[in-house]
Write a structure and sequence with these properties.
This protein has 466 residues and is mostly helical. Helix content is 78%, strand content 1%. Helix 3 packs antiparallel against helix 4 and helix 7 packs antiparallel against helix 8.
Length: 466
């Protein structure tokens, strides 16, 4: 059994990472995700005091930003899975090489993409046929953000490195600081106190880039503080080429799945748009509220991926097999409980958002279907990360593409338009996708094929945990 440092200080006690409780990994991730969800619209909210056209521009901008972040997540995901497995196997030197390689890839990848986005953003924005002022605002933000997005990419990779080593509190704390800087920067450049020039959208972009740059600097310092993270920067440009290949081999399929899901969701939104403004408004409100339900399961899934990486790297397949069932049923029970509470208390909550009777009726129907949908989502947001953490990265990608499009997108149209069930039909289609795909994923885990997909050399003797 392999010993590693896992404490939260400079002089941490030595312990086995496979024994780190899931709760210790997950709760900081949950807090960070809740903060991220709560503050995801802060730019839009503060810009509403500046210009309605600036807010309209942000609706377009966020699609470009999300697209870039999905591509950057490719490197971070590959690094996280490989580092956790190598740490579980006791290969700390290899974990350090992967961490260095992921940082080099992040900088190189984001450097090329940021320049490409800077060049292509203006003509791409032009495809939307926007009001000239809205177009100008959108271009102002992208011109600044795209060239500074290297900090976003590097920050995502640094967060992945820290989390993979078991230090999930660090990204949480750093992102809290970054969010505070972002909000303060928005305030300075939108409201212009004490004579500071009002830069509007450009100022919001500068605040965003500055907050990410500060986050990168803090995480770099915190990473150096932990003695269990081997990150010899003097060997930054001596990382073996196979390390880069391995990171991309794991990360690229995940990025493909994310992009496929995003495009599918855009098509589903187009289908919903065909039902009218009330349906779009109901969808927006419903997702805003439901996000707080499924973010719990998503956070458990992120912790599960790290935990399974440790266990598989250490050769503890049976322990991983048993514990993933426990994590899944925990998430399932939480989803049932939280969704039931929301369903019972929906009236006062919904009236905080709207008083439109038509919209409220649509949301109420969506919530009825969500009583089934949200528990089923746990199959995919907990067991899929478990499969990826074990090294079985391609199967869930293929299943995601087949079912998200073959059921989610196709039957959203069939149930919504052909059968005339409207927005409720779309939600039923999404429920079918989550449950049917989830059953296939569940059987994959139960079948144990993932036991043959490890990305590291397994120790010859492994002691299973009780």
């Amino acid at each position: 059994m392999n010993n590693h440092t896992t404490g939260h200080g400079d002089r941490s006690p030595v312990t086995d990472r496979t024994r780190i409780p899931l709760l210790r990994l997950t709760w900081p991730i949950l807090v960070e995700n809740i903060l991220r969800v709560s503050l995801s619209s802060v730019d839009v909210l503060m810009l509403s005091f500046y210009s309605a056209k600036a807010v309209a521009a942000m609706g377009i901008i966020l699609q470009f930003v999300f697209f870039l972040q999905l591509l950057y997540l490719m490197v971070a995901t590959g690094a996280s899975i490989l580092i956790s497995q190598n740490l579980g196997a006791g290969h700390t030197n290899k974990a350090g090489q992967i961490a260095l390689g992921s940082m080099v890839l992040a900088v190189a990848f984001s450097g090329v993409l940021s320049v490409a986005m800077f060049i292509c953003a203006n003509p791409a924005i032009g495809l939307y046929k926007l009001d000239p002022e809205v177009h100008r605002y959108a271009w102002q933000f992208m011109a600044v953000y795209s060239l500074g997005s290297v900090f976003t990419a590097l920050g995502m990779v640094q967060s992945a490195i820290l989390r993979a080593h078991g230090h999930t509190r660090e990204p949480m704390m750093v992102n809290m600081i970054a969010n505070a800087i972002n909000v303060f920067g928005n305030y300075l450049f939108i409201f212009g106190p004490i004579g500071i020039p009002v830069l509007g959208v450009t100022g919001v972009a500068l605040a965003t880039v500055a907050s990410q740059a500060v986050a990168c600097a803090i995480m770099a310092l915190r990473t150096r503080k932990y003695h269990d993270i081997e990150l010899p920067l003097r060997r930054l440009f001596k990382v073996p080429r196979p390390v880069y290949v391995q990171i991309l081999k794991v990360g690229v399929p995940t990025a493909g799945e994310n992009l496929s899901y995003t495009i599918g969701q855009l098509l589903i939104m187009k289908i919903i748009a065909g039902f009218g403004t009330s349906a779009l408004a109901a969808t927006s409100y419903a997702l805003t509220i439901l996000r707080y339900i499924f973010i719990t399961s998503v956070s458990i899934g992120m912790g599960t991926q790290i935990k399974v990486g440790y266990l598989v790297g250490a050769g503890m397949f049976e322990t991983a097999y048993r514990k993933v069932y426990r994590y899944f049923f925990t998430g399932f029970a939480l989803s049932v409980t939280l969704m039931s509470i929301l369903f019972i208390a929906q009236a006062p909550i919904l009236h905080l958002f709207t008083a439109d009777a038509v919209v409220l009726r649509l949301i109420a129907a969506v919530f009825v279907v969500s009583l089934v949908l949200e528990p089923g989502r746990n199959f995919n947001v907990i067991i899929i990360p478990a499969l990826k953490g074990s090294g079985d990265v391609r199967f869930p990608v293929y299943m995601g593409m087949i079912f998200m499009w073959g059921i989610g997108v196709v039957f959203s149209y069939v149930f919504g338009h052909t059968f005339g069930w409207g927005l409720t039909g779309v939600w039923i289609a999404l429920t079918c996708d989550e449950w049917i795909r989830g059953m296939v994923i569940f059987l994959r885990w139960r079948g144990g094929k993932w036991r043959t997909k490890s990305l590291v050399t397994i120790p010859p003797i492994a002691t299973e945990l009780p």
